[in-house]
Amino acid sequence: MVPYAALDCPFSSESMPLFKRTLSEFIFRRFMLKHHASNLLVDMNLEAKQQTLDYIKAKMIDAPFFEKHPALVDYTLGQVRKEGLYLEFGVGRGKSMRWIAPQVDGTVYGFDSFDGIQEYWNGNPVGAFAQKKLPKVPDNVEFQVGYFDATLPGFLEKHTDPVAFLHVDCDLYSSTVTIFDALGSRLQPGAIVLFDEYYNFHRWQEHEFKAFQEFVERSGLRYEYICFSVTGQQVAVRILENPDYAG
Ligand SMILES: C[S@@+](CC[C@H](N)C(=O)[O-])C[C@H]1O[C@@H](n2cnc3c(N)ncnc32)[C@H](O)[C@@H]1O
What we know:
Elements: H1 18-37, H2 40-59, E1 65-66, H3 69-78, E2 85-89, H4 95-100, E3 108-112, E4 141-145, H5 148-158, E5 163-168, H6 173-183, E6 187-195, H7 208-219, E7 222-229, E8 235-241
Parallel strand pairs: 1-7, 2-3, 2-5, 3-4, 5-6
Antiparallel strand pairs: 6-8, 7-8
Bound molecules: S-adenosylmethionine.
């Protein structure tokens, strides 16, 4: 290996005082070599970011965008014009539920096994986001504890209203498929769906995005993008027409 000092680099200048050269070298190695030049995550994220930007330009350029996550959630909730069920899939630590529930008059139903994700996802191992105890949430939240495919059928038998607001925050393709399979016929025109991990991360096209697009394809659903995040992964849509809607 060529010693660093032998490289043709401005930081190796003989005229530089020892302390300065050492500090510069430290910064160069730590930030340029370690965190930039040899960290593939940077390039994976940049690639995902470019693909996201292309998608935004093609599909949602006119929609309002947000930098702050809570502001995006507030705006999305303000877009709900229909009566119906408020549902969150993926409650985890309850952070998003603590933003949503205080803005809703009725009950918000929170679905989660609280066992964490059951598949590897985007650098997170199986079991990531598991909770030892139920999170603290406002009084108008009712938990549906268990895997979605186990809790949804009984829930939908008991609660026959259409969906007004749906928050998809379960990360996984398979879990999102379960949600749209079960709720497809409850998505009334005007319903708002907020995705927490729609785009802007490595292989975003394989997860919540894919499950929704497949549902759109097979149901003939029409929707519009109502807002998107420019710093995170959140995107919200309004359902315009749903041939599967049973209302
Ligand atoms: C990223 S966390 C949710 C974060 C949460 N909204 C918050 O703000 O703290 C994802 C959650 O989805 C849950 N989850 C994913 N797939 C599931 C499934 N099929 N059934 C039940 N829970 C699931 C996991 O247990 C995990 O708690």
